Amino acid sequence: MTSSSLAVLLALALLSNGCAPLTPPPGQGTHLRYAPREGATHGWVGGPDEPSAPESERPQRLHLRQGPRETGPVVDPGGVEDTGSALAAHLAFLGAVDEVSASAHRISREMSTLRASHQGIAGAGNGLFVRHLEYKESVEALTLLSALKFTLPALRAAAPATLGMGFMVGSGGVMMGTRMVVSAEWVEMMRRLVRAGVLSLPAVSAAVRIQAGQVMMAHGELPRGVREALGEGPEVRGMRVTDRAGAGMAEPPGHHVMPQEFREWFNKRGFTGEMDIDRFCVRLEQAHHQAIHGGGNWKLGRTWPGEWNRMIMETLLEAEADAGRMLTRNEILKNVAERMKEYGIPMKFIRRRGR
Amino acid sequence: MSDGRAWRGNVKARLYERVRERGYDSLTAFAEARPTASLVKLAEELGPDDIAGVQVFSGLLGEAEQHKQVTRLVRSMLVRMLFESIPEGWPSVMDDATRGEIALALGTWTAYTPETHKVRVKQARAALRATPPPPGWRPLGPDDELLVTLLPDEEV
User: Fold this and answer.
1) Is the CB of residue B28 less than 8 Å away from at least one CB of chain A?
2) A156-175 b/e with 16+ CB inside 10 Å = b?
3) Which of A6, A102, A222, B53 is most buried, with most CB under 10 Å away?
C-alpha cells in the first residue's frame, strides 16, 4: 500500500470515526456532507469508498439521477442506468475523491500527533483500517436502502453516523427535511436477507413506509414467510441511533448464531465472504445466552437438552440426511431464523470476528 | 418477543400463570386445543412479549414426561412442523425445494425429540422415506391414523 493511499484510508477512517477534529476548508461546507438544494444536482460526496480502486470495482449500483424532484443519488436496483447519469456520478465521485485527498494532506499532520501519542502507527492503522472497511460496508448497505426510494443526503462525519445514519426521503417518499434514523442492525439485517435471497428488494420496499418521521415496517403487507423471518416487533424497536458497539465500531459482545465449531461446514454451504458466519452474530443478555446453552432453570422437561448449538446442528445434519443433498444457504438461513424466533433471539445481526 | 424479556424473571411461573389466565389447567390442554399451531404461535398467544416458543415446548415436555405421554407429544410436534412447512399437505410432486423443506421440518422434529424417543423418530423418518404418505396427507393432530402407525404409543 502506498503512503498516499494509506493517507487516504486514514483520512477516511478518521472522517468516519470522528475522533479527529476536522474542519472543512472554507467554501467546502459539503465536504462529506450533503446539503439539499432545490432543483440542483448534487454529487454523492459521502461515499468515496476504495478511492484507489479502478472504476469497474466501484459499486455499479450507485448512480446520480437528474430529475426535477430528486435531489440525491438514487440506487437503481437493477443496476441499469443511462450512461449520462453514470458519467455524472463518476465525475462527482472523482470530485469527492479529490476533496478527500486534499483533506488527507491536512490529516497527515494530525496523524503525526496521533502517531506520537498512541501506541504507534501500526497498531493504530490496523484498527483504522478495519473501521474503513466498516465504513465501506455501511455505504454499501445504504445503497440498498436508497433502493427503497430513500435519498441519502447526509453522510455525516461523526463515526456512528456512518451506520446509524440520517435519511431524508426524496422523490418517492413523503417528507423532506426531517431526519430519521435506522439502526445499523436493521440495515445489516435487510442487506443480509436480500443477499441471501430470503427477501427480495421489492419485498423490502413494500415492507417499509415512512410515517411521522419513522421508518415503519408494514407488517400486514409482508408475505408470511418474510414476516416469520423478520420477526414482529424488534425491527421497529431497533430503529434508533446505535452506539459504537451497535454500529460495529467496537468489538461487540456478540454470539455466533451458527456454531463456530462448524465454520467449515457452513463455509461449504456458501457462508463465506459477505455471508460468513461471523456476520451472523447477535447480542444477548448474559442470562439469555446461558439459558439457550443449557443453563438456568427454565427447562421443565428432563429428557431434552434444548441446547442451541446441538439444536441447530442436529436439525441441519438430519435434514441433509433426509434430503440426500447439501442444504442451500437460503434453506439454512430460513431454518436458523425460525429457531431464533423460537428461542426469542433478536433478529439483529452484528458482526464479530471469529476465534 | 425477542428483546430478551422472555428470559428474565421466573420463566416457569410466568408460563403457568398465562395458561391459567386463559382458562386451562395444563399447558398440554392449551396446546391440544391448537393442534396445528407452531411453537411460536403458541408462545405468542401466551405472551407475545415475554414467552418463547422453546419454553412452551419445555413445559409441554415436562407435563408429557409426568403423564407418560411423550410419544403423543412427539407426534403432535410433527403435526405442528408439517403444518408450517407444507400447509397444503404432502406434495404430489416432490421437487427439490419441497424436498428440502420437508427434510428441514423432519430434521427440526428430530432435534426437538427427547433422547428417549430419538431412535423411534429416526425409524419413523426412514419409513416416511421408504413409503411416502399419499399426496395431500395432512395430519391435523396427534391422533392422525397414519401418524399413529408411524409412531404408536408405547407408554401405558
Assistant:
1) no
2) bbebbbbbbbbbbbbeebee
3) B53
